[in-house]
Structures are given as C-alpha cells and as structure tokens.
Design goal:
elongated; Rossmann fold; 2 domains; homodimer; BirA Bifunctional Protein, domain 2; 447 residues; 22 strands; alpha+beta
Chain lengths: 447, 447
C-alpha cells in the first residue's frame, strides 16, 4: 500500500499537463473521404494520431495505451485457443512469394525493395509463405506435435492506391495474424470453429456488435472463409445481413439477394444490404501453402502427409479506429470501456477561482484512489491544468472519452463533501461522497 | 483461487509437448563468424530463433516470452523518467532524411524503396527526423509543456554489409528509442543524467554487468554521448575499461591509452582494452534537428526558442542475445532470471518406467503450484513428454536455461515425498518436500 502511495506521489501520477497530446486538424484541401470519416477526424483532434505520410500514422501516447490494452485482450484469447506468439520480420524474401505465385498475383499493393546486394524483398502484407517455410524447415515433424498454432502481432504493409480514413485503410498497420497447421481436415475445421469463437469473445469483451459474414476466399486461396464486420456507413464492404437471426453474407459471394431462411429457417428473417468495416477474417486454406513449401508431417503409419492450414487475421489498429467510428458521436470519442486509454479523469478546480481551496483536495482524491483502489492506479488521470476552467477541461475529457470524469468543484468544499461524477457512456451525472465514489471505482474492470 | 485452478487444468497448463520449439543447427558451410558466436548457436539449437534471411530472424515462442518480459522492464523504467510511449511507422519519407542531410550521409546501410506513385521512402534505422517533425508540427508549444519525452519500441532496419552473430548484428531488429525535448541545456543535461540512470537500473534489474563508456558522437550528431556495453570477446567495439573504478572510454574517441585517474583520482586504477557489445547509447543532440525542422517553443517571454534534444537507444533484441552471450556456457543457455521464458520447469516421470505411478503427481504438483503460488502460474512449465527419460528432459530444460527444474521421480513416491530441485544458475541440487518447494517458489520474482 505504501508503495502504491509512493508511486502515486511521483512518477505514476499521470497529469494531463504533462501528457503529450497535440491536437491536429485535417490540412486544408483534404480529401472529402478523410473529412467525412469521423474516427479519423476525432483521433487527430484528440491528439491520438498524426499522419506521417499518406496512409501511415504516428500513434501518440493515448492511442498507444488503448492499443496495448487491445493487444492484451487479443493475446489472452489467442492463447486460450492454443496460439503461441512469434514475430516474423517485415522484410520477406521475394523468392518465397515467387514460389507461391503471389508475387505477381498481389500486384502493385505489394511493397518491394532491393537490399545492397540487389536481393529482392517485399514488405509482408501477410505471412503465409514465411510461416509455412518455418514449419517446412522441420524435417521430422510427428503428427503428435500437431496442431501447431502460431500468431504474431506485427506491422504489415500494403500499398493502397487510395489510402484513406486514417487507421481504417492505411499502408502500414498493425495486424494479428494466426496460422494453424492440423493433421487432417476435421482437425482444421475444429481449429477454425475455435478461432471464430475466440474472435466472437474478443468483440464481446469489447462490447462491439460484430457481424460474422460468409466471405469470399479471394487471392489468399483456400476453401472457406468468414469475415468479421462492424457495420458502418464508412465501411467499404457490402454485406447482406439479417438483424433478426444474425446471418450475414458478403455481397461479393452471392448473386442477387440471398435468403437467410435457407440457412437458419427462422420466420420473419429478412436480409438487408449494409456497409461493413472488415476487422477480421478467417480462412480455411487447405494444403495450398503446405504443398508448395512441402510442410508435411509423419502420420501414425509413418507416412508423410501435408498439413491442413488455416489463417486468421485481425486488423488491430483498424479495430481501434473502427470502434471509435461506431461508438462515437460527431463531437466526442467513445471507447470500448475496457480499452479506454484511462478509465477515470479527475478534474481539479481552477486556480484563482471560487473553488481554488479545493485544489489540494483533487490531489488527495487522486492519492486516495491509488491507495484504496490500487488496481485503478495506472488508469487514473489528473487534469491539473488549473489555468483552464473546469468546464473547458470537462469538455476536453469528454472529447477524449474517458469513461468516468470526476469533478472536484464547489460541493467538495461543503460540510458533506460531494464530487460530481460524469459517466460519459450513459451521459448521466451524479454527486457522490468520497466513500461512494471509491466504492463505484472498485467496480471498474481494468486490464 | 478456483479460477486459477481452472486455468491450470485447461489452456494455461503449459506443456512442453505442445510447445513450438523446433531445433535448428547452423547450415553447413556457415560463416566462421556465425559458428563462433555462442548465443546465435544456442538460440537456434534451443528453438528460440530461426533465420529468415541473412540478418533477419523469426522469433519463436520462447524468445517472444523473454522479449516481452524485457520490454516490460524497459517500459517501466522509461515511464519512471517521464517517457511516453508512441509508435512511428517503419516507412519514413526520404524527404525528411534529405532535409536533415542524413539521406546521403547514412550510405548503403539505409534501406530505401519507392511506393506505387514513385515517392521515395526509407525504412527507419532511427527516427530523429520523424519525431522532430511531429514536435515541430505544434505551432504554439509553450515552455510549460517541456520537457517532452517520447519513446517507442519498434522494428528498425539497417542494411549491414555483413550481418552476423544472430540477433547481435541483424538487418531488422527491435530497438527502444527515446527522444527528448528540453527548454534549455541544463534541462537537457538533467534529462540525460536521468535516462542514463534508468539504463543503469535496467541492467541492474537484469543483473548484467554493464559498462558505461564515453562514446563517439558519430553520424547522429550532437555534443556528448555515452555507450552501454556488455564486455565479451564477440563484441565489435573496443573499450578502454578500468575494472576497479569502472571508468570506460570507447577507443575511437581517444588517442593512445587514456588515464582514468585524471577523471576519478583513484589510485591503482588501470585501463585495459576490452571488447564490448554495444547494447545502448545516449546522445545529447543539442539543436541539430530542432533547428533543421524548426521544432521551437515559446519561452517565458513569449520568444521562440529551439528545443534542446537528446536521443537514447537500447537494442532490445540485441540485449536478449548479448545477455545469453555473456551468461551462458558453451552448452547451456543462462538468462537474466527475471526474463527467463519460464521460471520453473517440472519434469514428470517416464511412462512405463519404475516411477510411472508418479506421473499423476507431476500434474498434481503443477496444479498445487498454480493454486498456492498463483503469481507463478503463467511462468510454470510441465515437461510431459513421458516417452523420454527424465535425464534427457532435464538436459533439455538445462539447455534452455529455466532457472528452476523440479524433477518428480522415485523419491516423490516415498513415505516422506521429496522432489529434486535443480537451480541451473548455481548448479546446485537439493531434495525438498512439497511444503518447502512451495515456500521456495513463493520467493521467485516474476514480471
């Protein structure tokens, strides 16, 4: 407890006055596409991101905090389904992509370079070739060692013709990609089901209404696929979706309007065409890559067999932006609670104002929360910018979207002190005593 | 407690039989340089890394676990000195490097590419230009907002002429780079001291004997610098070092043998020339970059002033390999205890052997540790490969270097059951009862 107290008093006391949060506005003459994208604009205004070049972005401290929480959620769920974390280099020898045939298939979206010895590399947009080459490198792989499930969370590269919408469609972005190797099709299908369930859990933890749609297999190859969409008018995919039974199909995969009744036999189901932001996908790849790279294993009879593969992606930075896109108003960011950069922002009184004698109370409250609700200590922020009015700072905090804003104002100085507590998700405001406030904070889930 | 128990019984029970840990040997005809590098060979043999191309490596699950722990140590210490975490893209517009003049200075080690619109990019080996451009983007920066300390832990790229020694000299590697902006030279010097102290703390937590040497400023520019070295014959830097007073200087910065007495006045000090692996550096940059990119702020009198900058690097993947290089024997990896991939490896009896009835005891012990020492649950491994002898598996565990190996063997079946406990760091072995073993485990520090 003393330690926590000490931490609060020194380096761990997160103060808004010290936070690097530069606000940027879209440059004049910005494309209409960028201006109409709410998440892009809000993330720039709130100092979460800054454009580095078209389609590449600096992630600033508040965005990094949310991102690292999101990564924790994903890591936990990947490991629950047996995923083991690795990291493959961004620079991939082009020879691997020539072997698979994708070097030419992928077209100009593949970023290529030559090293000083004129050897060709590409910057991996995805790593089927690289990971299959690793597994193929094991010459005596027994069926007992399967399934193998390897995932990474690394920067991927795709030279979009028209990068736009901030982190929603960038050229360098963070992606989680899982690759699985099973000893037969039934095993691969079981793995597929378990990973799709893990994806459902991730979006459930984030409290995001995910739509799992039958997808096209596209250039990646393979026999079946699902896409995971967040419905939004900014989305660039078109999905037939039934809001009643939840069945969904990517428009690309069907001719005309599909009927969900065929699949689920629910009366009153109707499919409507919606726009979706694709934040995840799952592919059953079969043996396309294991055959090319000779990724085989020895079965029970000692005979070599090709591994049945699957690949599963989540756009990590895209989820961050897409969540903001679907949850926020035009003026204020709203986060999935669990990944908000900070859970609570305490606003101190204005210097020189009527409540100035309550300034020290804000510091005390901060320390009391650290002492009595230690699990919240790292998620607590103090807006100590005393030269600004309380109103202005509450507006700032609501703009960034901290789930709880606690104002130390006039009523904190009364005989029966009360703090104004604003729940930004519900929009409700109430006045709580310190004891009630601490009890409320006990209930906040943090990662 | 029940939850922890449940976790142990299912997905969180880490079993060696399920771990992806493919052993690789150096290909025939490997360069002498690679063969003589202990850490490179050991990391390949133990299934920690696999080469993807010359100078680029796949980090496999055990290496990733150690790496993520190392990142935690670094994050904590960077945040203690006020560092705020960001992430800048790997793709950096070449125009920024042309502005600073480093595009040509850096030479062929700079990896360059063109996007589909023929715009030039380089893959950042370091990000002075990019970060200064961000700060320069703020047009009304007040002196009150300084110092600004921004760091990232991201992949960096350097096209080494002769990449070698595994993770010690690669072409794509993980680096922590901190950039600081102070309002005057005194502030910058104070920041410099605090970051060097943070570096000392990091190596102290890792229990690595770091040598802080006066360094050359080199191509990066600036007025003063220190390098942080781990002394090793594989090291490619030459450092004059006094083992008595600790004073050290990079050979490049002096003519002839320097005297440490001049600096510290300790009798009996003598400088000897040693080889060092540079794992960190600190540079006081002055206004070289802030001037070029117009990164200024308004001082107390409202006048624009250039920020005094510093930059501070740590080779994260290099620290991992260098630690193994200096701590390991030729045959067995030894880790800084706090970042070992797992703290404890429990070895179960052989199937069909004399102690086979103790197999279930190994599982029970695993679960008991999870229940009674929950902080260790995620750091516990069970070597359940019952088809192998205990001896072979103990050898494997010692090879990977888990700090504690617990053997459930013959004596676990006696009336007064005992477990063989091997401390790989000290080489000592003792037999402990379950109560004593659990007490011992209570004392293990984990991140």
């Amino acid at each position: 407890m003393v330690l926590i107290g000490k931490r609060c008093l020194s380096a761990f006391c997160q103060r808004v006055s010290k936070m690097y949060q530069p606000s940027f506005v879209l440059p004049e003459g910005s494309k209409v596409a960028d201006v109409k994208c709410k998440s892009h604009r809000l993330m720039m205004e709130a100092g979460l991101i800054r454009q580095a070049s078209p389609g590449t972005f600096h992630l600033l401290p508040l965005a990094m905090r949310a991102l690292e929480k999101l990564i924790k959620v994903i890591d936990t769920e990947m490991q629950k389904v047996g995923g083991q974390k690795i990291a493959m280099p961004g620079m991939t020898p082009s020879s691997l992509w020539k072997t698979s045939g994708r070097y030419s298939d992928y077209g100009p979206e593949l970023i290529t370079l030559q090293d000083r010895h004129n050897v060709d590399y590409c910057l991996g947009p995805t790593h089927e070739e690289a990971v299959t080459d690793i597994v193929a490198g094991e010459k005596t792989l027994s069926h007992k060692r399967l399934p193998i499930k390897l995932y990474q969370i690394t920067n991927k590269f795709r030279d979009e013709m028209r990068p736009r919408y901030g982190l929603l469609r960038g050229r360098e972005f963070l992606m989680k990609d899982l690759y699985t190797f099973d000893s037969n099709l039934e095993g691969a299908e079981e793995t597929y089901r378990s990973v799709c369930e893990a994806y459902q859990r991730i979006f459930s933890i984030l409290d995001l209404p995910i739509v799992q749609a039958v997808g096209a297999t596209g250039a990646i190859g393979g026999s079946s696929s699902h896409e995971f969409h967040l419905l939004s008018e900014i989305g660039e995919d078109h999905v037939y979706h039934c809001s009643r039974c939840g069945y969904a199909v990517n428009q690309e995969t069907v001719e005309g309007v599909p009927s969900c009744r065929d699949h689920l036999s629910t009366p009153d189901c109707t499919m409507s065409l919606r726009q979706g932001i694709e934040v995840g996908h799952a592919f059953l790849l079969g043996t396309k890559y294991s055959k090319t790279f000779k990724a085989d294993f020895f079965d029970k009879d000692g005979k070599p067999q090709l591994a049945e593969m699957g690949c599963y992606g989540l756009g990590v930075t895209r989820i961050l932006a897409a969540a903001i896109e679907v949850l926020s108003s035009e003026k204020e960011i709203r986060w999935p609670q669990i990944i908000a950069p900070y859970q609570v922002c305490i606003v101190s009184p204005k210097e020189g104002g009527a409540e100035r004698s309550a300034i020290h109370l804000a510091e005390w409250l901060y320390q009391d929360v650290c002492l009595h609700v230690p699990h919240l200590a790292a998620d607590l922020l103090l807006d100590d910018r005393g030269h600004m009015t309380i109103g202005r700072r509450v507006k700032d905090a609501a703009h960034v979207g901290y789930p709880l804003i606690v104002v130390v104002g006039k009523r904190a100085l009364e005989a029966d002190p009360k703090f104004e507590v604003i729940n930004t998700a519900s929009g409700s405001t109430e006045y709580l005593s310190k004891v009630d406030l601490l009890q409320r904070m006990e209930t906040i889930t943090v990662l």
